[in-house]
Amino acid sequence: NVLRIGLIPADGIGREVIPAARQAIEALGSAIPKTEFLDLDAGFEYFQKHGKALPEATLQKLKEECDCAMFGSVSSPSTKVAGYSSPIVALRKAMNLYANIRPVVSTSTKPEVDLVVVRENTECLYVKQETLEKTADGKQVAKATRVITEHASKKIAQMAFKIAEARPRKHLTIIHKSNVLSITDGLFRESVREVAKDWPGVTVAEQLVDSAVYKLFREPGVFDVMVAPNLYGDILSDAAAALVGSLGVVPSINAGDHFVIGEPVHGSAPDIAGQNKANPIASIRSAAMMLRHLGYDDAALRIEKAVDTVLVEGRLVTPDLGGKATTQQVTDAVLKLI
Amino acid sequence: NVLRIGLIPADGIGREVIPAARQAIEALGSAIPKTEFLDLDAGFEYFQKHGKALPEATLQKLKEECDCAMFGSVSSPSTKVAGYSSPIVALRKAMNLYANIRPVVSTSTKPEVDLVVVRENTECLYVKQETLEKTADGKQVAKATRVITEHASKKIAQMAFKIAEARPRKHLTIIHKSNVLSITDGLFRESVREVAKDWPGVTVAEQLVDSAVYKLFREPGVFDVMVAPNLYGDILSDAAAALVGSLGVVPSINAGDHFVIGEPVHGSAPDIAGQNKANPIASIRSAAMMLRHLGYDDAALRIEKAVDTVLVEGRLVTPDLGGKATTQQVTDAVLKLI
Ligand SMILES: CC(C)[C@H](C(=O)O)[C@@H](O)C(=O)O
Ligand SMILES: CC(C)[C@H](C(=O)O)[C@@H](O)C(=O)O
């Protein structure tokens, strides 16, 4: 019984935080099966050298040789680069990781926040169906298609209700903008409402995406689980992260029915990359989420408790949290407690 | 010389705050030309009675008899209602009010915020081209088209640079998500960058929309003017509003080359409608912005100074700002100072 874990650091600080996550998993010892790590390529830097952001070999190894994976972060080109397309977006789609689950929880900071953004992860504007045309007078007109299906909306709703049901408050807020997008967001909302019938123990509310961001800043306590189409979920999870001190502590998993990829919510942070300054917490927590998703609850809890202790102590934290500790120092502090 | 102002209170607290704005304009006396007010219909409640959310007569009177207008706020139906479509979205398009200008400024509250969201106001997902189909197995698939044109992007860029150039910091941030939407948001970004060549005195930065919301909560001081496609602008202005205490103080204008409509950024707030609790400040400030747009700078300044004084004093404020004053008490306090 071996647990095979793909590691895709990709760009920037991904190369520093994924090794930290690996160390945390290794520190678990016999709490999980014997592990095997596979180093896999992807990212913008890889694209610049090899012309592919997500090589076939990476996808194939994930599908054929891995039980799960950890993804770091990707840089985006500062102007349009022909042939480049975000590897994490491609990966989510290729492995049908339809749910992006992003718990945002405050430890030492105020206001108290304890919510989960459950983001649909395969469609909306992320289908990347875009066209560019020219009008008669030579002006450019670009179009993108936003796709919302009943199927994916119900899948993500199921996942969101399952998560909500397992939480003390059992409350779900549907995020949409159906006052403008009555058909696409209307379908999302109705699909979630239909799934709601199977979950009578969960209370359901809804909020327009613009109001939700406002409310998040003003009264974050009203939210428990939020279920959102892809782009709104992207924005909301960053907004929520701002409330708990730093994106550097917010983890996520990309989950499907057959595979799971842990991924810190932060980006590749080119400004601090390679300086041993990146916060490893988001990545370490993502590893814990990944393990819990696979059924290793005790192992996940051990990592999470260690992280919480380090954060609550607040002595050894990276610059994003106002501290001076390095990536490795924070990682070591966590490892010692696992 | 008469200034003819259309008044469209529409739904909910719109009916309380538009009269407040009217009183503020009337209090200006001879600082502006003689005014004439035209009461115009629109809104969800009007739709429920008459089957139209934006009657032809309203549009026609705006076009033929008004110099400018004030719009209140619209309620949205809680489930899809056949034939209903948001009147404010329709109005922006019908009058080609391509710029939605939303200054967000803190007075007494921390952190210090002083920024302007310049939102494209006619395209993006707001073109409302949506379709609904069924797959072979009977599942629904909804699609929406997002349109970004070089023409509209350059128009809004011109407006944003003009605004930025007139401010002390002269700094503009382009908001986009071109790491995913390389063609549509790519075109938006490139169009703004091209217009930038004509404004060498303005510094230009850019930020992905998710990071921008994060940054807005963490370091609002980095932003001066933000230019954004329609939907991102909608979300960002609500996010920014949360930083200055309440949506109830944030004004906007919908501006085109030939017409301007003042509009508070808040919604119709059905929970407090009809109770004389709504904050009239956003609406009164929107009236000032509308007047400034028409060239009545002194009149605008008089209203704005009166509002700022009331806010800084902080004695007479509505419940959204933690006070107990009524809509009319706040309005009266402002009127006295105009
Ligand atoms: C890097 C980018 C494509 C990605 C997204 O938009 O999904 C990121 O912002 C995230 O939230 O994981
Ligand atoms: C009412 C709604 C259609 C509108 C919008 O999305 O533009 C509102 O949120 C706003 O910001 O003015």
Q: Can you characterise this structure?
A:
Two copies of one chain form a homodimer. Chain A has helices at residues 14-27, 44-50, 56-65, 87-94, 150-165, 184-196, 209-218, 230-243, 281-293, 297-313, 327-337, and strands at residues 2-10, 34-39, 68-73, 99-105, 114-120, 124-134, 140-149, 171-176, 203-208, 225-228, 253-255, 260-262. The first copy, chain A, has 338 residues and is α/β, with parallel strands linked by helices. In chain A, helix 1 packs across helix 9 and helix 5 (150-165) packs across helix 6 (184-196). Chain A folds into two domains: 1-97 and 264-338, Isopropylmalate Dehydrogenase (3-Layer(aba) Sandwich), CATH 3.40.718.10; 110-243, Isopropylmalate Dehydrogenase (3-Layer(aba) Sandwich). In chain A, strand 4 and strand 5 form a beta hairpin. The model of chain A has no long low-confidence stretch (mean pLDDT 96). A ten-stranded mixed β-sheet of chain A has the order 2-1-3-12-11-4-5-10-8-9, sandwiched between helices. The first copy, chain A, has a two-stranded antiparallel sheet with strand order 6-7. At the A-B interface, strand 6, strand 7, helix 6, helix 7 and helix 8 of A face strand 6, strand 7, helix 6, helix 7 and helix 8 of B. Bound molecules: 3-isopropylmalic acid (2 copies). Chains A, B: One of its GO terms (molecular function) is magnesium ion binding. Chains A, B: It comes from Serendipita vermifera MAFF 305830. Chains A, B: Residues 4-334 form the Isopropylmalate dehydrogenase-like domain. Chains A, B: This is Isopropylmalate dehydrogenase-like domain-containing protein.
